[in-house]
Amino acid sequence: MSTWHGLINSDYRRWLPVTDSTPAISLHEGNTPLLPSAHLSALTGCDVRLKVEGANPTGSFKDRGMTVALSKAAEHGAEVVICASTGNTSASAAAYAARAGITAAVLVPQGAVALGKLAQAVRYGATIVEVAGGFDDCLRIARELADHHPVALVNSVGNELRLAGQRTVAYEVVDALGDAPDIHCLPVGNGGNITATWGGYQNYAGAGQATRLPRIWGFQAAGAAPLVHGAPVAVPETAATAIRVGNPATWDGAVAARDESGGLIAAVTDEQIFDAYRAVARHDGVFAEPASAAGVAGVIDRHRRGLLDPGQRIVITLSGNGLKDLDASLRDGHTTTETSARTADAARALRLTA
Ligand code: F0G
After folding, report:
1. How far is the C-alpha of 196 from the C-alpha of 24, rounded, in Å?
2. Does the Cβ of 190 fall within 6 Å of ligand 1?
3. Atom of ligand 1 nearest to the CA of 155
4. What digits encode the pLDDT tens for the residues 194-228?
């Protein structure tokens, strides 16, 4: 049995911009499950697989890029890294910074971050600034601070290190399936992950590791869909807070991924996102955070509208772990029934007869 020691210590290292003098700051991220979805396959007539990125060490795909960003920051002797975040980037940056002995400063939109993500950043020891505004304001401030102070920006904006790490998801998919799928679906917020995912498939095909390229289907929340409208959204709104972004920093990369792959970027409503969130938990046993179910919502939507040909192989990125946002789950109401301490009462509550 081979053991896994994280991306930098794996065969994927040759795709990462690291050298012998780069320390490996790793939490053994990557190598996440690619699960067949019996439910979505039966529904669509396609072969649907779920790439469970919530299985990463801090519970999201961000760890793929952060291991590279913090390894390089450590190599260069950085003392402080800074990022703007809707929650997951900050949790990941804080964890990898802790491991590197570097201070993490994170800017998050006030009142719009799932509590689990904030709790992670707090526990890993990050310095947290809550900004009275949205993610886009946080990113503007983080960039200005990085321009004028000795702090390293670890957002994926123009950050080749983060993107290089995040490309590994495509390598893992091709290695697991033997080739690229027909379609790769994923949620889109700031645009970094769709750019990196497409770049990964391109790299692998270019190196002869895959014979084909997938179409990339990105999905944004309807209230925060600037790439769908072709213009920034001043006040983005969605209960899927991870992707509440009005002016994606990696705009051009996202559009290129769509166009070069012959894919699409479409909108799904919050209702569709939350239906998909419930469905993957209920039918596939995967607790993914709401935003991360946008890709599933998109596939279901296209199938219902007759826009999905059966017989295709589809990979859907589930980008983050459901445990990060317990409010979102419990808001739905729980199905607990009060009982006394008597077994007979519990049996009645559970409708167990005989
Ligand atoms: N899914 C989750 C769970 C996310 O946290 C994000 C982005 C995305 C999808 C979209 O990825 O931004 O590369 O297009 N979260 C960022 C953050 C904005 O700050 O954690 P993207």
Report:
1. 21
2. yes
3. 19
4. 999 999 999 999 999 999 999 999 999 999 999 99
Whether residue 88 has its Cβ less than 6 Å from ligand 1: yes
Pairwise CA distance, residues 328 & 289, whole Å: 8
Å from CA of 34 to ligand 1 middle: 20
What does 223-271 look like in DSSP terms, one character per residue?
A: GG-HHHHTS--SS---S-GGG--SS-TTHHHHHHHHHHTT-EEEEE-HH
Distance between CA 38 and CA 46 in Å, rounded?
10
Rounded to 10°, the helix 62-75/88-100 angle is: 40
Phi and psi based region of residue 285 (left: phi greater than 0; alpha: psi -120 to 50; beta: remaining) = left
SS3 159: coil
Position 159: which residue type?
A: N
Q: Which are the contacts of 297, defined by CB distance < 8 A and separation ≥ 6?
A: 219, 268, 272, 273, 275, 276
- Rounded CA-CA distance 221/201 in Å is 25
User: How does residue 36 score in pLDDT terms, banded at 50, 70 and 90?
Assistant: very high
Can you read off the two tokens belonging to residue 296? 């599933």
pLDDT band at residue 148, thresholds of 50, 70 and 90?
very high
Whether the predicted pLDDT of 159 surpasses 90: no
pLDDT the model gives residue 353: 82
Question: In sequence order, what are the beta bridge partners of 320?
Answer: 60
pTM of the shown model: 0.97
Q: Give residue 160's identity as a one-letter amino acid code.
A: E
Q: Measured from the CA of 91, which atom of ligand 1 is nearest?
A: 20
- CA of 92, closest atom in ligand 1: 20
Contact 124, 98 (CB under 8 A): yes
Q: Is 59 in the pocket of ligand 1 (CB under 6 A)?
A: no
Cα dihedral 271, 273, 278, 282 sign: positive
Pocket test for ligand 1, best of 167, 319, 324 (most atoms within 8 A of CB): 319
Model confidence pLDDT, tens digit, residues 42-70: 999 999 999 999 999 999 999 999 999 99
